[in-house]
Amino acid sequence: MTDKLKPLRDQIDAIDAQILSLLNQRAKVAQEVGHVKAETNAPVFRPEREAQVLRGVAERNPGPMGDTEAQTIFREIMSACRALEKRVTVAYLGPAGTFSEQAVYQQFGHAVEGMPCASIDEVFRATEAGTAEFGVVPVENSSEGAINRTLDLLLQTPLIISGEVAIAVHHSLMSKTGTMDGVTAICAHSQALAQCQVWLNEHFPHVERRAVASNAEAARLASLDPTVAAIASEIAGTQYNLGVVNSHIQDDPHNRTRFVIVGHLQPGPSGSDRTSLVLAVPNKAGAVYQLLAPLAKHGVSMTRFESRPARVGTWEYYFYVDIEGHVQNPAVTQALAELKSNAAFFKVLGSYPTSLN
Ligand SMILES: O=C(O)C(=O)C[C@]1(C(=O)O)C=C[C@@H](O)C=C1
């Protein structure tokens, strides 16, 4: 056995030495890019370029390594190279261990400064003030719908959406002992409790459900109290030393949350982009239909349409619309100019590369 392994491991050692040398060659070039950018005060993080690099990795990947695995590695390579230019600070809905933190790493890799915030409002405030260069906030969940606080804040903020990330949300039921013995309450964020309600009704109909600020907070509480179980990601469970009672308890096995990245940067076109808008029209029959007509006229596809009652201002509803394409694409530019002239309220939230998954 050992005799057969030795030459293979020697090969791996030799390849690793080459990989390391190539990684450092790449890192030196990235440092040069950093110097060029510093001269012109150009932004270090270029989401459209990173999206193109990662799409190129999948296109050129000869295997047997999977495309997603190759992209994960290259995301971290770019993250490490970017950190040599400048380490980007990213605010997110904390504490550490939340799906928001996972979204940060999925977009930026691990060579970033994560800044956990107590609320979505705080993420916007920190990013607007420049304490963080970017903020990552949840915008919609596949089973529970829109995250209304984010939609309201997007309406008011001067920040621009510069990217999106979709995360598969798998919830686990966990406790200090890894069992439900002696457990009298199950804690989680209200969204997570809602996403697991059918499963909970079936398995633990008589255990109290308690909504707390975040799933990570639930995990922290469970780590302190054997009468409390938490619904959270297993990453959060590991962080707080919890045992798993049941995995994958969310009612929808394909449950996903989409996050957006907000900041002061408007990315250029990447070749596969999305544009997010907010619109309002006077409340009269056919107004919404007329409002959206320019999209069909210019062949622009709408990928999302969400209405939100206005709590302030003149209009009854705001419409959150996502379309395919970048504001700089001619068809999108024309469609938006016509849309703007029909709308009573019009705001482009940003144009950004579509997420990889
Ligand atoms: O191409 C750039 O602008 C770089 O700074 C290099 C690089 C990379 O490592 O490939 C790093 C950071 C940017 O976000 C994009 C790409």
Automatic annotation (TrEMBL):
Superkingdom to which the source organism belongs: Bacteria
Cytoplasm in keyword set: yes
Keyword Transmembrane: no
Domain ACT: 276-353
Gene Ontology process terms (BP): chorismate metabolic process; L-phenylalanine biosynthetic process
GO cellular component, as recorded: cytoplasm
MF terms in GO: chorismate mutase activity; prephenate dehydratase activity
Subcellular location: Cytoplasm
PANTHER family found in the cross-reference section: PREPHENATE DEHYDRATASE P PROTEIN, PREPHENATE DEHYDRATASE-RELATED
Record function comment: Catalyzes the Claisen rearrangement of chorismate to prephenate and the decarboxylation/dehydration of prephenate to phenylpyruvate.
Name of the protein: Bifunctional chorismate mutase/prephenate dehydratase
